[in-house]
Design a protein that fits this description.
By secondary structure, the chain is mostly helical. It has one domain (about 10-465): Amino acid/polyamine transporter I (Up-down Bundle). Helix content is about 70%, strand content about 5%. Strands 1-2 form a two-stranded antiparallel sheet. Helix 5 (about 50-75) crosses helix 18, helix 8 crosses helix 9 (about 175-200) and helix 10 crosses helix 18 (about 420-440).
């Protein structure tokens, strides 16, 4: 393996322009999207207890921090573009690494871009109803394999595509412009959520939530199962914390910056999430929260009246915009790394000579994400792929053990705190969430595995075009 601890900006064409503040804002900006405003009502279906709801978010935050400590070691030791793809490739070989990149491009990363863009457009519809997802601009009946499909295109989906392509163009034009938008959106997002928390905690009309951990009528077994299902939703809301490692090749002094950014970013996210959930519990009795999708809107309205609904819509637009920009920024670095290994289209490995970005990879990601947005398939893809995403979390976390044995002399300027206990805790906890996901969504889980397996023949087709680049 090449010494990945050296500055690779001249080696691969990318330039290190991101500092600690940029990296931290990227993590917070990507993770804190619309999930925190929509998830808690669904969690309350599984664990209708204020105490358990808060505990689920705290546990999710601690597990995320444990994962961040693992990725801090990996990122500091191998600070190159691609992140998790690189760690899996180096630990287990080119095929597992390719399968991760395969699902990233076709479902996970691009699906996230499409989903966040549509969510942003939906909340823009609060202010401009003609732009919402309820405004239909096209309907058409299509026959596929002798089956009729009624296709509907909404104005919200069109707006989502405009957002995707616009921010893709911004990130194509340079890291400096992309990071500036990310920093502004994330600072505004943190400030807006902090204001909501302060007003929510100090509102005189709030209730005092009962923090008992065992609601009446719930057996221990039912609570354990429900808590596991709740952690799936919490994991979805925290998803994206590891994306900063994708752009390790553009971070200044990565051996110090990546560990600090991961710990600071995940800590800020956990604080915001737990505090925001406490506001929900102050605003609404648990029975009024169960099953409510727009729980933030309902909670803030209960505390401050109908005008607060517009405030929530504005905050979600800001949060979604930052998450969208960040997701568009980081994803192409994975495809870029794959292309450098001769496992993806060669043009994705080319850095723009003026803007110093993987421009073609950014554009292709934007086009595919738009296709997912207009077809509406991103929702199904997320449902199918969450199971596989958790598997790759476990695989990447386990690579910290494999890589220490495989490359004992690799410089490790940061070593995971609490090793081996913390990595093992993260892995075992993730396995528990994985098992719950199987029982909660068995058909979707198998579908996700099936789609991932389709990448195997594709990998061998790429290999016939030329062996992957050696890192030894």
């Amino acid at each position: 393996m090449a010494n990945a601890s050296v500055d690779s900006s001249h080696q691969d064409g990318l330039v290190r322009r991101l500092g600690l503040f940029d990296a931290t804002m990227m993590i917070v900006g990507i993770v804190v999207g619309s999930g925190i405003f929509l998830t808690t009502g669904l969690i309350a279906q599984s664990i209708p207890s204020p105490g358990l709801i808060l505990l689920a978010w705290i546990v999710g935050g601690l597990l995320t921090l444990a994962g961040a400590l693992i990725y801090a070691e990996l990122g500091a030791a191998m600070p190159e573009a691609g992140g998790q793809y690189v760690y899996i490739r180096e630990a287990y070989g080119a095929l597992p690494g390719f399968l991760y990149g395969w699902i990233m491009f076709f479902t996970v990363a691009t699906g996230a871009v499409a989903a966040v863009a549509v969510a942003c457009a939906e909340y823009l519809g609060y202010f401009f109803p003609s732009l919402s997802t309820t405004t239909v601009v096209l309907t058409h009946d299509i026959r596929v394999l002798h089956r009729g499909i009624h296709y509907t295109l909404s104005m919200g989906q069109v707006v989502a595509c405009i957002l995707i392509l616009g921010l893709s163009a911004v990130n194509y034009l340079g890291v400096g412009l992309g990071k500036t938008i990310q920093n502004v959106c994330t600072v505004a997002k943190i400030g807006a959520i902090a204001i909501l928390i302060v007003f929510g905690v100090t509102a005189g009309s709030g209730i005092h939530p009962e923090l008992a951990l065992r609601p009446a009528g719930f057996s221990v077994g039912r609570l354990i199962t429900g808590f596991g299902v709740a952690l799936i939703a919490v994991s979805y809301a925290f998803d994206g914390w590891n994306n900063i490692n994708y752009i390790a090749g553009e971070i200044k002094n990565p051996q110090r910056t990546i560990p600090r950014a991961l710990v600071m970013g995940t800590s800020i996210i956990t604080l915001l999430y737990v505090s925001m959930n406490y506001v929900y519990l102050r605003a609404l009795p648990i029975d009024e929260m169960v099953g409510v999708v727009r729980v933030a809107e309902k909670a803030v309205t209960a505390l401050h009246g109908q005008t607060a609904a517009g405030v929530i819509a504005a905050v979600v637009v800001i949060a979604s915009s930052g998450a969208l920009n960040g997701s568009i920024f980081v994803g192409p670095r994975v495809y870029y790394a794959m292309a450098q290994d001769r496992l993806f289209f060669h043009r994705m490995s080319i850095v723009h000579p003026r803007f110093r970005t993987p421009g073609f990879a950014i554009l292709i990601q934007g086009v595919w994400a738009c296709l997912l947005a207009v077809t509406g398939t991103f929702e199904q893809l997320f449902t199918y792929m969450m199971f596989v995403v958790i598997i790759f979390w476990i695989v990447a976390a386990a690579s910290v053990f494999t890589l220490r044995k495989k490359y004992p002399d690799l410089p490790r300027p940061y070593q995971a705190w609490g090793y081996p206990a913390i990595p093992l805790l993260f892995i075992f906890a993730s396995v528990g969430i994985l098992i719950n996901t199987i029982f909660a969504s068995p058909v979707e889980s198998l579908a996700g595995l099936g789609f991932t397996a389709l990448g195997v023949p594709v990998y061998y087709a790429w290999r016939r075009k030329g062996l992957p680049r050696s890192r030894e």
